């Protein structure tokens, strides 16, 4: 655990519970960073696909592909998955 994690309040005075909370938070921070890194990579790739498609005479969007992505997220994550997918798609292509 790093010093920043150790100094954060845990909401409990019980030492073992506080240690468990700190460890879980450290892992959460690692996961958050992975999500951020993957989000940025996905957006770059999506932008590259769009630019390549348009440069070759294709359309800006392929709506069937976007629907497939939204459905994949909705199936995996429920109603919130739809919102997550729409944000991810917007990050890669910009607002419509």
Word description of this protein:
By secondary structure, the chain is mainly α. The protein is built from four helices and no strands. The longest helix has 41 residues.
Task: Map the helices and strands.
Elements: H1 3-7, H2 15-55, H3 63-77, H4 79-93
Helix pairs in contact: 2-4, 3-4
Q: What would the principal axes of the Cα set say about the shape?
A: elongated
Instruction: Report the mean per-residue pLDDT as an integer.
Output: 91
- Secondary-structure element pattern, one letter each: HHHH
Q: Quick one: biggest sheet?
A: none
User: Roughly what fraction of the amino acids lie in strands?
Assistant: under 5%
Tally of strands? 0
Uncertain ranges: none
Entry keywords:
96 residues; mainly alpha; elongated
Care to give the gist of this entry?
This protein is mainly α and 96 residues long.
